[in-house]
Amino acid sequence: MYTLLRSLRTALFAGLACFCSLTAFAETPAAAPTTDERLAALEAYVNNSAPAKSLVGVPGPGHNAWMMTSSALVLFMTLPGLALFYGGLVRKKNVLSVLAQCMGITGLVAILWWAVGFSLSFAPGNAFIGGLDNMFFKGVTSATGTLPWVSQNVFAIFQLTFAIITPALIVGAIAERMKFSAILLFVTIWMFAVYFPLAHMVWGGGFMSGAAGTIKAIDFAGGTVVHMSSGWSALVLCLILGPRVGFGKEKMAPHSMVLCMVGTGMLYVGWYGFNAGSAGGADGIAANAFMTTTLAAAVAGFTWGMIEKIFRGHASILGFCSGIVAGLVVITPACGYVDSTGAVIIGVLAAVVPYIFCTKVKSFFGYDDALDTFGVHAVGGTLGAILTGVLATSSVNPGIEPLIKGLLFEQFKAIGVTLALSIVSTIIIAYIVKATIGLRPTEEVERQGLDINEHGEEGYVN
Q1: What is the pTM of this model?
Q2: Number of domains, the chain
Q3: CB-CB contact of 144 with 135 (8 Å)
Q4: Whole-Å CA distances, 430 to 102, 107, 193, 235, 239
Q5: Fewest C-beta atoms under 10 Å: which of 87, 196, 355, 367?
Q6: Are 104 and 180 in contact (CB under 8 A)?
Q7: Are 299 and 347 in contact (CB under 8 A)?
Q8: What is the DSSP code string of 211-229?
Q9: Which residues form the domain of 267?
């Protein structure tokens, strides 16, 4: 009996060994990584530096968490940040119209982005526009995609928040005098003609995407895609629209600098998601963008206030707010490429140059850029793109080392393309909207205010 049991045991072990060896042969497992390889992969994960060394090819919890936080911060910039910032600068009778425009644009752009916008911006296509592979978020799942450590659905929503705030910025130039329906139609066409192509050209591997592009320009977080496109389009649209009724003859002072200051603070905080989030992970480049964003905005706000104190005798809340936002705009394309000294230089110039445009240039030409969208965003975005070409350093971001030589010239080429696309497209779209549904309400409606006439509500009842 003992001999029989021993024979059975031997046969069983032999069978198991044979099964295991057959299974191993069938699956042909990869060799286990060495300790050095695992340490290198861990270091790459922490630094978000080498996608090829990913341990398992799934989203990392730290980077995913930062990108979800950044997405919420950028959405916070529009709702309620930009809405309150702009809402405080208009007259009482038009406060709700600004809030409605920001909220309406948010919903409209979200639908467009889900349906086709994300695909046209980031799916494989040609040098100028993406393809249709990701229509209706097809393939946009929790697996990694465009970014090595981040779920593709998180990346898509992060980029959606950029797509939302960009056309909302245009509202500042045409505030108090454009029909709500006309704004929605204009934004719909503008997204297809301007934003989706620019996003693809700069960030989607297209025509102006750094080392991979024909124009080897760099734009860390949206100087061209967001601020230049919206700011120059805003100027063109406000010129075609014409000034507000009573402009230059009636007082059109902001109704609440408290709301404006609150909105500015929200924009400042939200901008950390905008700039540091554009690193694509919680890494050293994000930390640098976090630092430079803080410095540039604070320095610009202080400098603008001091300019007013010297030349006007007082430092106004509007001046501080304008300076902070200008500093945030100008540092945006450079934040991941410049050091702290570069950020301070940018902060000073971000106050001086937009101040001149918002006060002297606007007054000289007499255009009605109601809330200084052109002076801050167009001028600031353009200035930021130029200063990026001057101050960017590979000591901060080694990835741009091959691009440093000749970078300033490449930045000017990118500026030219952005201006041409934004200006020409806006002219065409504005006249299409004007010829179909009209751009402006009647003079009577404008004098009564857009709140009650366009939205059936009053934000402030006397």
Answers
A1: 0.88
A2: 2
A3: no
A4: 19, 21, 12, 12, 10
A5: 367
A6: yes
A7: yes
A8: GGSSS----SS-IIIIIIH
A9: 66-455
